[in-house]
Design goal:
By secondary structure, this protein is mainly alpha-helical. Helices cover 75% and strands 0% of the residues.
């Protein structure tokens, strides 16, 4: 389990500055997305007042959070171009290692500082007001219904011949409200002790993430995945020749 968590951190993990060379169009799109997120959070979390008197959205624009959001968007922007051509080759994957390592280093350095104040503020708001969560759910549902749902439906329709499009369509037909989601969750988890399992999983993840980051494993993983010589080339060539020879041996002789 811990090995899977380590691999997830290595792969999913954006510090060097991969935003260098970002186009004006891309920068404008990032600004639009950021402003939308801040506006939505201000509405959805309107009843969560911080001790300082500031809006909840101010927690999303701390230096740590902005570094994560900015590099995360830049990584997405580069990956969209990098992986647009199929099939994806080893060369393409290798060219993305530095970007992934950069993202991993940023998450290691900034994730806790970004997340901790948000978690603490939400906890205080939940403890202070029993109606807080229902109000958040109501506000989020209203925003989704009015601004997002039609676009998701359109995407599912346009991509009905893909697995993702099909899954979205099935989910939208199965869950038409938060009550549907909540009922399904309660039905599936009744008597399973999922709360204890979830708490243990979070604690385990934090432990592994801390060890992964403090040991410099992000850079070590990137170095391992990035060939410094022609070792990988020779290995891949040998493997290709081996499989080619095996295929030739098994191929039926033509009459």
């Amino acid at each position: 389990m811990k090995l899977l968590l380590v691999l997830a951190l290595a792969v999913a993990a954006v510090s060097g500055n991969i935003c260098d060379g970002q186009s004006a169009e891309s920068a404008a799109e990032y600004a639009t997305i950021k402003n939308t997120v801040l506006a939505v959070s201000s509405v959805v979390m309107a009843n969560c007042n911080l001790d300082s008197g500031a809006e909840f959205s101010s927690l999303l624009v701390t230096d740590s959070c902005l570094k994560i959001f900015s590099e995360g968007y830049c990584y997405y922007d580069k990956a969209a171009v990098l992986y647009a051509v199929l099939p994806v080759s080893y060369g393409v994957l290798n060219s993305d290692v530095a970007n992934i390592a950069s993202l991993g280093n940023t998450l290691c350095a900034e994730a806790e500082a970004c997340y901790a104040p948000i978690k603490e503020a939400v906890r205080k708001c939940i403890d202070a007001d029993d109606s807080f969560l229902p109000n958040v759910i109501e506000s989020a549902t209203f925003y989704y219904k009015s601004a997002v749902e039609s676009r998701v439906e359109s995407y599912a329709s346009d991509n009905s011949d893909t697995i993702v499009g099909t899954l979205i369509d099935i989910a939208m037909k199965r869950f038409t409200s938060f009550n549907d989601i909540n009922a399904f969750f309660l039905e599936q988890t009744a008597g399973t002790g999922i709360e204890d399992d979830a708490a243990a999983a979070v604690a385990s993840f934090k432990e592994v993430a801390s060890l992964f980051c403090s040991s410099g494993c992000t850079d070590q993983t990137a170095s391992f995945l990035t060939p410094s010589s022609d070792t990988w080339t020779r290995a891949l060539t040998a493997t290709t020749l081996q499989y080619s020879a095996e295929a030739a041996r098994l191929r039926p002789l033509s009459s």
